Amino acid sequence: MKYKYILFLLLFLSTFKMMSQDVKKKISNVKKVGFLYNNANDKNFLFNDKDYSYSTNTYKFQLFYNLGKWKSLDFELIVQPQYQVLKHQLQNKFFILPTEENFESKVAEFTSPKTMHLYAFELGFAIKKKIFKKVDFQLTVGLGVGTIDTRTERLAKGFTFIENGSLGFSYKTSTNTYLYLGSNIGHISNFNTQKPNNGYNIVGFEIGFSYRLQ
């Protein structure tokens, strides 16, 4: 797990370095702009932890950059500032151990339903392959940093990492517009910078719209 975070961090920093070398040029080379909505939760065929309930509604503004082409594959970088609204509730009060400091107050705090907010900046690396004239299959892997405004029994308030993987289809609806439909698997944790750091795992769906500038 530690090595995975280190690899992601190096990839993240190297991308920032690449983009900072010629910021004006990069900004002027935006291929598309778009918006994506994602809905996900922890109750699914992959993750179904009975200790808690957790769901997210995520809103992403997107900037698309061409990274190149290899054989029949196209590569894109997607810059994605975002806002997430999170619903959480601890359902198993015995998750909080009696040996913990302020045990009773933590049980009362964490078993109450919570609405939390997360603000993040994410880089997505997309691979696209045309399967029909107007339809591309798309695989996207994303990594981001953010901050969450409320603590829970699973995650401390403050700094977070977000990781996402998506599979979907991009449909060219007109000369300059695209509709995206996909599924998503995600993880939120804080790189062990604070305790607790159990984090969250989610599966959901997403829909996006983008407009070609070039």
Describe this protein's structure.
Helix content is 15%, strand content 56%. The radius of gyration is 19 Å and the shape is elongated. The chain has helices at residues 2-20, 23-28, 103-110, and strands at 32-41, 52-70, 73-90, 114-130, 135-148, 158-172, 177-189, 200-212. The protein has three helices and eight strands. By secondary structure, it is an alpha+beta fold. An eight-stranded antiparallel barrel has the order 1-2-3-4-5-6-7-8.
Q: Encode the helix/strand succession as letters.
A: HHEEEHEEEEE
Please estimate the helix content: 10-25%
Low-confidence stretches: none
Query: What's the total helix number?
Result: 3
Give the strand content: over 45%
Structural class by SSE content: alpha+beta
Largest sheet: 8 strands, antiparallel, barrel
C-alpha termini separation? 40 Å
Give the strand line-up of the largest sheet.
1-2-3-4-5-6-7-8
User: What's the overall average pLDDT, rounded?
Assistant: 87
Give the overall shape, derived from the CA principal axes: elongated
Number of strands: 8
Radius of gyration (Å)? 19 Å
